[in-house]
Design goal:
Elements (H helix, E strand, L loop, with lengths): L2 E5 L6 H10 L3 E4 L1 H9 L5 E2 H5 L14 H8 L5 H9 L7 E4 L4 H5 L6 H6 L4 H11 L5 E3 L5 H11 L4 H30 L12 E6 L9 E5 L11 E4 L5 H15 L5 E7 L2 E8 L2 H11 L7 E5 L5 H8 L3 E6 L4 H7 L6 E4 L10 E6 L2 E6 L11 E2 L7 H14 L7 E5 L2 E6 L5 H12 L7 E4 L7 H9 L3 E4 L6 H11 L2 E4 L8
Parallel strand pairs: 1-2, 1-4, 2-3, 4-5, 11-12, 12-13, 19-20, 20-21
Antiparallel strand pairs: 6-7, 8-13, 9-10, 9-11, 14-15, 16-21, 17-18, 17-19
Helix pairs in contact: 1-9, 4-8, 8-10, 13-14, 16-17, 17-18
């Protein structure tokens, strides 16, 4: 008679699976709560203590860590010496292991959970059994995911056992499962000790979905989420539209990152190719959108819109008149949904964009390597500004300068942003020299540039950018300062009565 060892925390589909194994002639060994659940279903599993001849001790901390379990799992069955030792010790084979682990991730995420409770949810026996059985997958079937129950049972019913290819597939899945589990534990304890950049880094992500393709149709892609995805498209609910694409997710993420810097204000972001084409703030979300749209009504075509307040009927009517790929908002009224869902393909994503959640680290992949840095969460307040020109900015100019500074932080370097009346009017992104970005922003702004303010993500190495700003009618500038030729730019500003303030901090974005 074949034997199966069953010990699970997630009991989804358990009883049906075990009943199927029993019908196929399997003897069931079980532990603790799993044994009780099977008995309540009318099954009669053998207790693990009856197999080991040793009681469960220390509140169940030690029950399966025994030679009669691991000997049965690790015995190489075509090795005569292994088989002889097993027979001499009275150890019987275990042919199938069905184990899933204590809910560590769910425990960590519980509100008010204690450190002691988290530690108690570190599974020891479960990973040990899974790893032992998976190492011996040529002889043993290992199941760690209830989604695989039907496949395994069907093969046993049809063939008397699982096929070698299935056992190898399941073993690989187990080692991913236990690696993920250990990575989560390591992450929790590393953060608790305050070590930000340890000597080795193991991070884990769970698949959200396969994507139709990557950046381009010839590239395969998938979307994964991390352990704490609250402020992430991975945690958004799609209410309508086509499946998200790789580029949609990249752009959507960039848009919600901008919204983070406008906490407490009604803000709207229009975005294209990872750069904002329009950002506006207003007394309500519709007014904010009006400004974001007016900022660049051409570039927003086929773009992404992110909002930090509920979309109501009036705003929905305006949004429906434009071709948009995605609208991200914390909510949509029924009337707004009725209007927007008339468009078959537009993606409507519900996500709480008001969450004050800071992801501590940013990961950037390079060939065979990973760059890790703190997220750029730095924000400037009025008292942080240092005026370096003879003319000081007016209170209104300071308001616009701070607004521009929040936006330019999210524009690809070299970055220049022109702002006026709580909205962007010109964005110059990603040029190889700063004056090139300035010319793009000024050209986009046109006549609106007169009376606007300019924000630069990094210092001016020479006064040419300032000279372009003056010609366009810019009245005040915000920049980090720190160039050895700072005085040249200051002198030009003073000559033309322009106010300029330094932040003392830059926002490169590559």
């Amino acid at each position: 008679m074949k034997r199966a060892l069953v010990s699970v925390s997630d009991k989804t589909g358990l009883v049906e699976f075990v009943k199927g194994l029993v019908d196929c002639g399997y003897e069931i060994i079980s532990t603790g709560g799993t044994k009780k659940a099977l008995e309540e279903a009318g099954l009669n599993p053998i207790g693990i203590s009856d197999v080991t001849g040793f009681p469960e001790i220390m509140d169940g901390r030690v029950k399966t860590l025994h030679p009669k379990v691991h000997g049965a799992l690790l015995c190489v069955r075509d090795n005569p010496e292994h088989v002889k030792q097993l027979q001499e010790l009275g150890i019987e084979y275990i042919d199938l292991v069905c184990v899933n682990l204590y809910p560590f991730k769910e425990t960590v995420q519980k509100k008010g959970v204690t450190h002691e409770e988290i530690i108690e949810n570190i599974d020891i026996g479960g990973p040990s059994m899974l790893r032992s059985a998976s190492k011996n997958y040529k002889s043993i079937t290992v199941v760690c995911d209830p989604k695989d129950y039907d496949k395994v049972l069907k093969e046993i019913q049809e063939n008397g056992d699982t096929c070698p290819v299935t056992r190898e597939f399941l073993a690989a899945k187990v080692f991913r499962h236990t690696a993920r589990y250990d990575a989560m534990i390591a992450d929790y304890l590393t953060k608790k000790t305050g070590e930000e950049f340890p000597e080795s880094l193991t991070i884990t992500f769970d698949k959200v979905q396969d994507l139709r393709y990557g950046e381009n149709p010839h590239q395969k892609a998938a979307f994964y989420k991390g352990m704490n995805p609250q402020y992430s498209l991975a945690n958004a609910t799609q209410l309508h539209g086509k499946e998200l694409s790789y580029n949609n997710i990249q752009d959507g993420n960039a848009a919600i990152e901008i919204l983070k810097d406008f906490e407490g204000q009604c803000a709207a972001v229009g975005l294209k190719h990872m750069n904002p084409c329009g950002v506006g703030i207003g007394e309500n979300i519709e007014a904010a959108w009006d400004k974001a749209y007016e900022a660049d009504p051409v570039s927003i075509f086929g773009g992404i819109v992110a909002l930090n307040d509920t979309v109501e009927k009036g705003l929905a009517e305006k949004l429906s008149k434009i071709f948009l790929e995605i609208i991200i908002a914390p909510g949509f009224t029924p009337e707004a949904l009725e209007i927007l869902t008339r468009k078959k393909n537009i993606r409507l994503m519900k996500l709480d964009t008001t969450l004050s959640v800071n992801t501590s680290l940013k990961y950037t992949n390079v060939n065979d390597g990973l760059l890790v840095q703190e997220m750029d969460m730095h924000q400037i307040k009025e008292e942080d500004l240092r005026c370096v020109t003879n003319r000081k900015p007016t209170p209104e100019e300071i308001k616009q300068l701070l607004f521009g500074w929040k936006v330019v932080k999210h524009v690809k370097s070299n970055a220049i942003v022109l702002v006026k009346d709580d909205m962007t009017i010109g964005v110059g992104a990603g040029q190889m020299n700063r004056v090139g970005s300035a010319k793009i922003a000024i050209e986009e702004a046109g006549e609106k540039a007169k009376g606007s303010v300019m924000a630069s993500d990094a210092f001016f190495p020479m006064p040419d950018t300032v000279e372009e700003a003056i010609k366009a009618g810019v009245t005040a500038i915000i920049q980090p300062g720190g160039s050895i030729r700072d005085q040249d730019s200051i002198d030009v500003c003073n000559e033309h009565g322009i106010a300029m303030v330094y932040t003392g901090i830059r926002h490169f974005k590559h």
